[in-house]
Design goal:
The structure holds 2 protein chains of 2 kinds. Chain A is an alpha+beta fold. Chain A folds into 2 domains: 35 residues; 101 residues, Nucleic acid-binding proteins (OB fold (Dihydrolipoamide Acetyltransferase, E2P)). Chain A is 34% helix and 30% strand. Chain A has a 5-stranded mixed beta barrel. By secondary structure, chain B is mainly alpha-helical. Chain B is 79% helix and 0% strand. In chain B, helix 3 runs antiparallel to helix 4 and helix 4 packs antiparallel against helix 7. The longest helix of chain B has 40 residues. The chains are: A alpha+beta, B mainly alpha. Chains A and B meet through helix 1, strand 6 and helix 4 of A and helix 3 and helix 6 of B.
Chain lengths: 142, 235
C-alpha cells in the first residue's frame, strides 16, 4: 500500500519521536527538584536533605484562623492537611492572600516547623465566579 | 474534484473567504471586549483582574493549537512528501507566535496583582516560554534553510520536540506543584468558571480564531505568490 520510501520515512519518524520522548523523560527526571516550584509541608517533614538557612519555597493552604498580625510582623500556618509549618513574615502581602487560600512562601527554614519568609506569593485556585454566586454558595453551605 | 486541488483555484477561493472574514473580525472582537469589560461580572476574589483572562486564555489556546497543527502538518509532509502542505505550516507559525507572546504578556499583567509577582519559574510558565523559543527556531529554520528537502526534515524534528513540550505544558499543572492554577475549563470534566464569565470568553475565542484565520490566509496567499515568482524566475 505505502511504497518503500514512505515506509522508511514513517519508521524514521517513529524512531526519532520515541527517542526524543525517552530523552525528555530522562531530562525531566534529572531536573525533578528544579521542576518543583515549591515544597509541601509534608515534603519538608519527610526530607532529610533540607538545609536550614537555604532559600527554598514552601507552599500549601493558609490554615483557617491562623493569621495573626502584630505591628510589623504577620504569622500564619501553611498546611497540606497532613503537616503544618508556621511562617513568619515582615512586609506586604498580595491582595489574594487570605485564610483557606493557596500560598507560596519564599524564604528559609529555621527548623522543621518554623519558616522565615522573605516573600509571599498568593496562589489562585481554578474557580471563577461573581461575588453574588459566592455569597449564595456560602449561604447554602450553612 | 481536480478543480479544488488546483493552486489558482485555491488562491481564488482563499481570496473570497478572506474578504468574507474581514467583515466580521473587528465587530466580533469589539462585542467581545464590551462583554468582557462592562457586561460580565467581577470575580469574587480577584475583582476586575479577572477580565485579563478573556484575552489570556483564548490566546494561550490558539498558540497551543497552532503549534499542534503545525507539528501534524510537518509530520504528514515529512512522511508523504506533499509539497503544498509546507505552505500551510509556514503561514501558521507567525500568528501562533504572536498569540504566544500575547498569552505570556497578559499572564504577566495578571500575575502582578494576584500572585504578587510578574514572573515565576514554575513548570507551566517556563514550558510556555520554551514554546516561544520553539516557534522562533521553527520560523528561522524555514526562513534560512532554502533547500526544501532539508528544511522539511529540520522543521519536522523541531515540531516533534515541540509537540512533546505541548504535552508538558498541558499537564504541567497536574504533574508538579506550580504557581499557575490548574485548568478551569475541561471538556471531559467539570468546568469551574461561572456561566456569566464563559460568554465573553467564548466571544473573544471566536473573534481571535477569526483573526488567526485572517492572518493565516493572508500569509498563505503571500507564500503562494512567492512560490510562483520563484518558478517564474527559473524559466
Amino acid at each position: 500500500m505505502l511504497n518503500i520510501k514512505t515506509k522508511n520515512r514513517l519508521s524514521i519518524f517513529i524512531a526519532i519521536s520515541a527517542l526524543s520522548i525517552i530523552i525528555i523523560i530522562f531530562i525531566l527526571k534529572t531536573l525533578e527538584d528544579n521542576v518543583l516550584y515549591f515544597y509541601s509541608p509534608t515534603d519538608v517533614e519527610e526530607s532529610n536533605k533540607m538545609v536550614f538557612g537555604d532559600t527554598i519555597k514552601v507552599g500549601g493552604m493558609v490554615k483557617n484562623g491562623s493569621i495573626k498580625t502584630n505591628e510589623n510582623e504577620i504569622k500564619f500556618i501553611i498546611t497540606d492537611y497532613k503537616n503544618e509549618i508556621i511562617v513568619s513574615y515582615k512586609g506586604t502581602v498580595p491582595a489574594l492572600f487570605a485564610e483557606g487560600k493557596g500560598v507560596v512562601a519564599e524564604g528559609s527554614l529555621q527548623d522543621k516547623k518554623f519558616f522565615l519568609a522573605k516573600r509571599i506569593l498568593a496562589k489562585h485556585d481554578e474557580n471563577y465566579m461573581p461575588p453574588e454566586i459566592k455569597e449564595s454558595l456560602e449561604k447554602n453551605a450553612k | 474534484m481536480i478543480k479544488f486541488l488546483n493552486p489558482s483555484y485555491i488562491f481564488y477561493l482563499t481570496g473570497k473567504i478572506l474578504n468574507f472574514i474581514k467583515i466580521f473580525v473587528i465587530p466580533i472582537i469589539i462585542i467581545g471586549v464590551i462583554f468582557s469589560l462592562f457586561i460580565s461580572p467581577k470575580d469574587y476574589i480577584q475583582g476586575d483582574a479577572v477580565r485579563i483572562m478573556y484575552v489570556h486564555v483564548p490566546s494561550a489556546w490558539i498558540s497551543l493549537s497552532c503549534f499542534a497543527l503545525i507539528s501534524f502538518l510537518c509530520v504528514i509532509n515529512f512522511i508523504f512528501k506533499i509539497k503544498s502542505i509546507s505552505l500551510i505550516y509556514k503561514s501558521l507559525a507567525p500568528i501562533g507566535l504572536t498569540f504566544n507572546f500575547i498569552a505570556i504578556f497578559t499572564g504577566s499583567l495578571w500575575g502582578e496583582p494576584t500572585w504578587g509577582t510578574w514572573w515565576a519559574w514554575d513548570a507551566r510558565l517556563t514550558s510556555m516560554l520554551i514554546l516561544i523559543f520553539f516557534y522562533i527556531i521553527f520560523i528561522l529554520s524555514y526562513k534560512f534553510i532554502t533547500n526544501p528537502e532539508r528544511s522539511s526534515k529540520i522543521c519536522t524534528l523541531i515540531s516533534v520536540l515541540g509537540l512533546i513540550n505541548l504535552v508538558i505544558i498541558k499537564y504541567s499543572v497536574n504533574w508538579w506543584p506550580t504557581l499557575h492554577q490548574p485548568s478551569s475549563i475541561n471538556l471531559a470534566g467539570e468546568t469551574t468558571v461561572h456561566f456569566s464569565m464563559l460568554i465573553p470568553l467564548g466571544i473573544m475565542l471566536f473573534g481571535f480564531l477569526l483573526y488567526t484565520a485572517l492572518i493565516f490566509l493572508m500569509k498563505y496567499r503571500i507564500e503562494t505568490i512567492r512560490v510562483k515568482k520563484k518558478s517564474l524566475k527559473k524559466l
